[in-house]
Amino acid sequence: MTLDGVVPFPPEFAARYRKKGYWEDRSLTSVFTETFTKFAGRVALVVGGERVSYASLAENVERLARHFLEVGVRPLDRVVVQLPNTPHFVYLYFALQRIGAIPVMALSPHRHREIKYFVELSEAVAYAIPDRMGDFDFIELARRIKGECPSLRHVLISGGAAPADCVSLAACLRTESRVPRTELDQIRIDPEDPAVLQLSGGTTGVPKLIPRTHNDYAFNSKTAATMVDVRRHDALLVVLPIAHNLPLACPGIQGFFLNGARAVLSTSVRAADVFGLIARERITHLAVVPALLIRWLNDPSIGRYDLSSVRVIQSGGQRLQPEVKRLAEQRIPSATVQENFGMAEGMLTFVRLDDPHDVRLETVGRPMCPDDEVKLVDDEGREVPEGEVGELAVRGPYTLRGYYKAPEHNARVFTPDGFYLSGDLMRRHPSGNYVVEGRKKDLINRGGEKISAEEIENLILSHPAVQNVACVPMPDPVLGERTCAFVVPRGGKRVTLPELVQYLSELEIAKFKLPERLELIDELPLSPFGKVSKVALTRRIAEKLREETSA
C-alpha cells in the first residue's frame, strides 16, 4: 500500500481473501479493459438518443486518460468528481481508473464548505464539474477553491464552453493527445491501493472518505451482480446520482458492464419521464431509494406505460416498508422488489430473489459473501443473544479497515480486531436474514441522503440568536425523515425558520441538509446521564405531527 492515510487489510486476511478467490489482484482498469473488449459490439450506455457501444466507451476512456496524463494527472493523484448522470461521468471515472488516479465522489448538491474540505483532505490535484446546474455556477466555485487550496491545479469542465483556465472534457474527447498509447500501458497499479474514495454518511461534521481498493471494489460489483440476477441482455435504469455506491457498484454500472449489459442514464426523476424510458428501453432493473419509488407508485401516469420488462426493483438507502413492497408488486406485477442494506464502507446484505415472500417483506437480507463476518453487539461490545437488537459490527473482504486520514475517528469506530462498528441497530430474523431496528448514530436519513445532526447543529450554534440546538429526524411519508431543529433562543432574541435557512445557505452547504422545521424551546430535555435526550425530542415532534394531521 503506497498511499499515505490508507489503513491496509492485515496480511493474513489479504492472504485468505486471495486464496478463496475474492481478490484477483487485478486493477479495475485491467478488469474493465478486458470487459470492454469482450463486449465491443454491444451497447453499453444509453443517454437520450445517444447509444454508446463498449468499443466507443473504451475509445473515449483511453483518449481522456491520455489527455489527463498530458496535463499532469498521475497514478494515485486524487480528483474530486462532481458530475451529473451523463456519459462524461462514465468516461471520466474509467479514464481515472485507466491511469490509476483516484476519484473522490462528491454529490451535485455539495457546495463550498464540503468541496473545499474534500480537496484539502485528499490534496486533490483536479476537480471535475459541470459548467452550471440550474442557476448555480460551478466554475465560480471551482475558481474560489482553486485559489484557496494549493494542491488543486486543474478544473475539468463538462458541458458548455470551457474558459481558458479550465480543461474541457468535450474538447479532450474530440482531439488526440500528444501522449502515446504506450505510456498508458506502462502504468502499474497496485490492486491494494484505493480505486475510489467514497463518502461516508458520518455523524461528525462533513463526511469521511472511504478508500475502496481495486481488489475489493471489483469483488463488490461482481458478487452484487449475482445477487440481482444480471444477464447479458438486461438494462439498468440509473436515476440516482452515479457517484453513490449503489448505482455505481452495488452492482450498479460496474456490475452491469461486467456482464455486457446496458446502463440507461437519466437526469430526470419525473415519473412520466422514467416510465417512458422503462417502456422504450425495456428496462429490467431499477435501483431506487424508497422516497423515489413511493413517488412513482403514486403517480397516476403509471397505468399508461408498459412496464412489463421490469424484473427487479432494488431498493436501498433506507428501510422500505412492507406496504410499499406490496404496492410495487401490484402496480408492476412483473417485478420482484428486492431490498438490500448497504454502506459505502463495504458490507452488503441482499434479500435473495427466491426467499419466501414473508422474509422478503420483513427483512433486508443477509450478507452476500460467506466471509462477511457479522456480529450484533451491545454498548460494551458483547454479542447480544439470538433475536435481540444490537449494533451491527462487520468485517470482510470488501469492508474497509479505516477511513482515509482519520486515525482518531478510526480508533472509535473499529474494534481492535478490525470489526467496523456501523452504528446500525439490527436483529437477526429466524430465517437468518437481518431486520433493521434503527440506528445508534446521530444521523437523519432524508430520502437516502444521510445528514450529520452534529454538523448542522454546529453551524446553527454560530447564529447570534441561538443559545442551544438539537437536530432530530421527524417522520415524513415520502422521504422517511426530514430535519427538525429544536432551538433555545439566546435571551430576548428571536429566530424564524426562513431566517435560519437563509443563514445556513450563506454558509454554503448542500440544500438537503437545511432544516425543514423549527421548534423554539425554553430548554433541551436531558437524559439521566446529563446528555440532550434526542429520543424525547424525536418523540415530541412525531406526536406534534400526528396531532396536526388529525386536527
Which descriptors would you attach to this protein?
Rossmann fold, 27 strands, 551 residues, five-stranded parallel beta sheet, nine-stranded mixed beta sheet, GMP Synthetase, Chain A, domain 3, alpha/beta, 3 domains, 19 helices
Sum this structure up briefly.
This protein is α/β, with parallel strands linked by helices and 551 residues long. The protein is built from 19 helices and 27 strands. α2 (28-38) runs antiparallel to α3 (54-71) and α3 (54-71) packs across α4 (87-99).
Shape: globular
CATH architecture of the largest domain: 3-Layer(aba) Sandwich
Strand content: 15-25%
Q: What distance lies between the first and last C-alpha atoms, to the nearest angstrom? A: 61 Å
The domain count comes to: 3
Mean pLDDT: 94
Report Rg. Answer: 23 Å
CATH-derived topology of the largest domain:
Rossmann fold
The CATH class of the largest domain turns out to be: Alpha Beta
What percent of residues adopt helix (DSSP H or I)? 25-40%
- Uncertain segments: none
Describe the structure.
The protein is α/β, with parallel strands linked by helices. The chain folds into 3 domains: 26-39 and 55-214, 3-Layer(aba) Sandwich (Rossmann fold), CATH 3.40.50.980; 268-439, 3-Layer(aba) Sandwich (Rossmann fold); 443-550, GMP Synthetase, Chain A, domain 3 (2-Layer Sandwich). Helix content is 34%, strand content 24%. The protein is built from 19 helices and 27 strands. The strands form 7 sheets. The protein has a 9-stranded mixed sheet, with helices on both faces. The termini are far apart.
